[in-house]
Amino acid sequence: MPFTPTPEERMTTNHCVRTIVLAVLALAPSAIGAATITRTETITAATAVAEKVNINTAGVRELMTLSGVGRKLAEKIVQYREAHGPFKKPEDVKSVEGVGSALWEQNRGRIVVK
What we know:
The protein is about 60% helix and about 5% strand. By secondary structure, it is mainly alpha-helical. The protein folds into 2 domains: about 1-50; about 55-110, DNA polymerase, domain 1 (Orthogonal Bundle), CATH 1.10.150. A two-stranded parallel ribbon has the order 1-2. It starts with 6 loop residues before the first helix and ends with a strand.
């Protein structure tokens, strides 16, 4: 004998299906938005990699676009510049504690002084 759902079971099943469909529809814009944000951040990061950074005028945020430079190191660069005056040549940034030869080599094409 085949299974025949009662009217109550059919209502419960229909209710579950509607709930799932509504949940998917409600969450879909969030997923699309998240993908857009990630793509935008990737494009912004890629653009930042190509731009030159003037270490005599750059703030913490701009210095952080350099490869391997986080907030703390960017703050050290700004503090060093404020204490010792402007950098004379790009490689002078190696005088800042935490900026070694490897970091300099990663960023030498992007660091400028003006």
